[in-house]
């Protein structure tokens, strides 16, 4: 390889500058595109999971927990399989075992247990009980992420972050101002969505223990596989009727097909989200990702017949802007644009 | 057992302080060279992700003899602390 003296040193404004500028530009654009795709595909995932629960035996399942956890277990497991195929193509399968043997890898896994079985399960219960209203509520996870960083990592929030937090809370209150008709467990659904947001916020804290040294494509693969397997093997047996419903769903097939597509959307969403974070920074990446709240509500209105009310529209827009404010200074977007 | 590649890239920079992507790949070739993931594209991904997380810093850039852009990185204080804290001592010895 080139030693120091083999390298042709170039003056500013030369070919090296032009190539560097073009590399930076393409990384920035790819990062923004990834962030946007991550938000869109997360909304597609959220919508398709609801479609999957519309078929028997999931549609007529008793209790509020069995159907969402069968869905979340199958969805995450199938997403994990999609990611295994992707990582095998890249020649990265060995990285999974290597990562699990490192300290940051173990910390990430603890976080995955919060973000996978707990948060994703609660999110799907929330979607089942409160419909599209659960989507923007779950987007308040950046609020909880900031609170946990404050408590555990001693990162004091700035005035801007506090402003964003207040907006998140205000948006959640607006959404709950008018309860939709025909949703008897609406408030319970919103509470489950909040549990999801809290667990996702806490998951982020565990990635601060050296998680930056781990390839995110590998981390996401572990997350989905571990989450899916834990739900299917360790959680479902403790939910009344859980295993029977899982068997029935697998035999019926149609819901599994929808969940396979939902799992693919979730897999693409996570890979793109982390790629966006590592190219344009977590703040911009997360802000683009959180637009899923907006798209999710939109898709639910278009494809699932969710009633559109002024409170859900205003509330979700307020939460999206609040979440963006928590993670970044919106003025930075314009600065990046000038580069 | 080998370290995960991204960790190995940071660990290499911990040992040598500064290096460009080609130099990093040469140093890790014995361990990882046989794997399908040993591509320049993925190694650029690794250094840029480590840079985005504040563990590496782009020091300068120039063109190689083949007119290819070369990115020269150095490890940051955060990067050094992360290696000391989370990478087992046996991997850290040069």
TrEMBL record, chain A:
It is found in: Endomembrane system. It is a multi-pass membrane protein. It comes from the Bacteria. Residues 34-176, 188-327 form the EamA domain. The chain crosses the membrane at residues 29-55, 61-85, 106-126, 132-153, 160-178, 190-213, 225-243, 249-274, 286-305, 311-331. The keyword Transmembrane helix applies. SUPFAM superfamilies: Multidrug resistance efflux transporter EmrE. Keywords: Membrane, Transmembrane, Transmembrane helix. This is DMT family transporter. It comes from Loigolactobacillus zhaoyuanensis.
TrEMBL record, chain B:
This is Uncharacterized protein. The lineage of its organism: Bacteria, Bacillati, Bacillota, Bacilli, Lactobacillales. It comes from the Bacteria. InterPro entries: WH-like_DNA-bd_sf, WH_DNA-bd_sf.
């Amino acid at each position: 390889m080139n030693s120091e003296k083999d390298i042709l040193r170039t003056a500013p404004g030369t070919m090296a500058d032009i190539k560097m500028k073009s590399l930076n530009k393409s990384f920035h654009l790819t990062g923004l595109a990834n962030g946007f795709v991550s938000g869109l595909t997360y909304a597609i995932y959220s919508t398709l999971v609801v479609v999957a629960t519309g078929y028997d035996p999931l549609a007529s399942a008793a209790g509020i927990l069995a159907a969402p956890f069968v869905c979340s277990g199958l969805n995450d497991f199938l997403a994990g399989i999609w990611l295994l195929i992707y990582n095998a193509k890249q020649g990265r399968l060995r990285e999974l075992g290597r990562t699990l043997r490192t300290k940051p890898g173990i910390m990430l896994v603890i976080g995955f247990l919060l973000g996978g079985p707990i948060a994703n399960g609660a999110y799907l219960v929330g979607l089942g009980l409160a419909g599209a209203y659960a989507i923007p509520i779950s987007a308040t996870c950046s609020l909880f992420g900031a609170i946990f960083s404050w408590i555990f990592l001693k990162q004091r929030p700035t005035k801007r972050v506090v402003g964003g937090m207040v907006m998140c809370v205000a948006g959640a209150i607006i959404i709950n101002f008018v309860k939709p008709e025909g949703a008897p467990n609406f408030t319970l659904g919103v509470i489950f969505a909040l549990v999801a947001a809290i667990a996702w916020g806490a998951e982020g804290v565990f990635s601060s223990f050296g998680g930056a040294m781990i390839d995110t494509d590998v981390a996401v693969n572990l997350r989905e596989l571990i989450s899916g397997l834990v739900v299917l093997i360790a959680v479902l047996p403790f939910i009344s009727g859980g295993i029977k419903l899982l068997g029935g769903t697998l035999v019926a097939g149609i819901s599994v097909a929808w969940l396979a597509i939902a799992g693919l959307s979730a897999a693409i969403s996570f890979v793109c989200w982390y790629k966006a974070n590592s190219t344009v920074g977590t703040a911009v990446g997360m802000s683009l990702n959180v637009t899923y709240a907006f798209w999710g509500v939109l898709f639910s209105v278009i494809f699932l017949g969710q009633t559109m009310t002024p409170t859900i529209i205003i509330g979700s827009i307020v939460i999206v802007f609040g979440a963006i404010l928590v993670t970044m200074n919106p003025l930075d977007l314009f600065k990046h644009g000038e580069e | 057992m080998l370290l995960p590649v991204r960790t190995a890239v940071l660990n290499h920079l911990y040992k040598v302080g500064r290096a460009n992507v080609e130099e990093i790949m040469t140093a890790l070739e014995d361990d990882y060279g046989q794997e399908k993931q040993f591509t320049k594209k993925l190694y650029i991904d690794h250094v840029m992700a480590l840079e985005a997380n504040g563990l590496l810093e782009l020091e300068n850039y120039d063109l190689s003899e083949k007119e290819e852009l070369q990115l020269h990185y150095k490890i940051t204080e955060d990067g050094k602390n992360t290696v000391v804290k989370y990478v087992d001592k046996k991997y850290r010895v040069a």
